[in-house]
């Protein structure tokens, strides 16, 4: 699997068009749609990705069932959704968390 790097936004800025900026952009999509132990290797691609929060929010908001998205497997995402059935917008929550993280880094 080849990991392409692209121009990355500031790690503190929420990006609406996140997909082309992901570390996985340009890689074989089948590498992220694996099962079992291979998911661990797929999750490594997400480490250090500048848009990991955006990717995860999109997968959670759209109830994406398969593949590794935002550093989480389908099982991990299902468990999170079960723990937090009250959440209507993961985008709002993760964007807010990203902004707070940026404020903490500046202070």
Automatic annotation (TrEMBL):
Domain 4Fe-4S Wbl-type: 23-79
GO biological process: cell redox homeostasis; negative regulation of DNA-templated transcription
GO cellular component: cytoplasm
Statement: the UniProt record of this protein carries the keyword Plastid: no
Cofactor binding notes: Binds 1 [4Fe-4S] cluster per subunit. Following nitrosylation of the [4Fe-4S] cluster binds 1 [4Fe-8(NO)] cluster per subunit.
A molecular function GO annotation: protein-disulfide reductase [NAD(P)H] activity
The keyword Metal-binding appears for this protein: yes
Cofactor: [4Fe-4S] cluster
Keywords assigned: 4Fe-4S, Cytoplasm, Disulfide bond, DNA-binding, Iron, Iron-sulfur, Metal-binding, Transcription, Transcription regulation
InterPro entries for this protein: 4FE4S_WBL (IPR034768), Whib (IPR003482)
Binding site for [4Fe-4S] cluster: 24, 46, 49, 55
Compartmental location: Cytoplasm
Post-translational modification comment from the UniProt entry: Upon Fe-S cluster removal intramolecular disulfide bonds are formed.
Classification via HAMAP family: WhiB
Biological role: Acts as a transcriptional regulator. Probably redox-responsive. The apo- but not holo-form probably binds DNA.
Family designation: Belongs to the WhiB family.
Name under which the protein is recorded: Transcriptional regulator WhiB
Source organism per UniProt: Phycicoccus avicenniae
Lineage: Bacteria, Bacillati, Actinomycetota, Actinomycetes, Micrococcales
Gene that this sequence comes from: whiB
């Amino acid at each position: 699997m080849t990991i392409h790097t692209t121009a990355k936004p500031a790690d503190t800025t929420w990006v609406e068009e996140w997909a082309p900026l992901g570390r996985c952009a340009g890689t074989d999509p089948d590498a992220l749609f694996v099962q079992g132990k291979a998911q661990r290797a797929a999750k490594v691609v997400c480490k250090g990705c500048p848009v990991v929060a955006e990717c995860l929010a999109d997968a959670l908001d759209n109830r994406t069932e398969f593949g590794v998205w935002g550093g989480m497997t389908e099982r991990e995402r299902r468990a999170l959704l079960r723990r937090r059935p009250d959440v209507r917008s993961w985008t709002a929550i993760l964007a807010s968390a990203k902004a707070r993280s940026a404020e903490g880094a500046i202070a």
